[in-house]
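Board notes (copied after class):
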Amino acid sequence: MIRIIPLKIESEAKAKRLLASIGVSRQGVKILAPKSLPLAFRIDGISSVEANIIKQNLLSLGTDSAIEKDALIKRIKTKTIIFGSLNQLKRLCKKLNNQPFGLREVSTEISTCLNNLFKKEFIFKARDKVLKIKEAVICGIINLTPDSFSQDGLLKEMQNARQSAGRAGKMKSLVLKKAGEMIKNGAKIIDLGGESTRPFSRAIKEEEEIRRVMPALKAIRKEFKKIIISLDTYKYKVAKVGAEEGVDIINDITAFNHSPRMASLIKNYKLGCVLMHMKGSPATMQVNPSYTDVVEEIIDFFGERLKFFKGEGLTDEQIVIDPGIGFGKRLEDNIKIINELYKFKIFGLPLFLGLSRKSFIAGVLNVQVGERLTGTIAASCCALIKGANILRVHDTKEIREAVKITSHIFNN
């Protein structure tokens, strides 16, 4: 299977490392590195014949590609790095479209990558709501749990309440107050969660999750009819009840691997969905996670899940993707994901990111949960620059103001 990975080559030194990584000769690295500073893509899984045809076409357009030395003289499966201006690569696609072997497929894949990589606006449809994404969208978090890692679960505030009627009334008041503040601070989406998915947490029963979440969902839906409500769950029964009560998005940490029936639910109710990558389960995900290349593994994961969803009849306008910061990732994995967010742009879908108060911030700053706001702001601004579209956060006002300044500077 052909796989195309966009590359950002900011320096000649990085170019030399990339070229050497696919087996280019020492002399080839020296010649090609200065040529590779415009757009670059790595193409995996092509034949040496195809790689050489691509190289000849690029040379005719005034640019070049890098091929491992054995592929120049042997018939083998190989990788190649192509580089050139946007115009040169578009012209390459036209040339390859008329070539034999599998080069028409390569042409289509490169063309799709080019179009998606430069896509700046998205349409996201969730039930009867349409979200036009031109700048960063803030998604506010409301945890209806007693054990959230971020220490903001509303049930924790109710631990000492004695009478159920009074407790229910106070909970409704707390939820509406928090949702109202988030909306006032610029949140376009409110994400409700009834089960903590922090590292080493255990699942709760569906009935308990429904009991925690549905009163809040009903209250917010009644009070704020236009706000987009997301339900953070991977359980079909919980999602089904949520859909019946008016939720707009299902945010599933398993990308619906836990319950494939979710796809038909999304389709039937015309909901939006967030597909997230996670290695393992919340109980096991931080037990020595490891990757050869975390970003490329996540890209392959999304490719497989999106193929499944398209087969179930969902459209691009119903889907956003989340690489799952902190879900089965080491500190270096989380940093790499944020730094290489642009690679996920090849799917042409909005990028959803949950950075808020995550442990990787503590890994850098050595601070407790309550001291992670500045780290969250910094990470959110970096993520925005690298390509994030939707930021799932606890501190809506602070993040909204920070990303607004960032957007004004970098998009001016």
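Comment from the instructor: Residues 164-184 form the longest helix (21 residues). Residues 313 and 401 are 38 Å apart (CA to CA).
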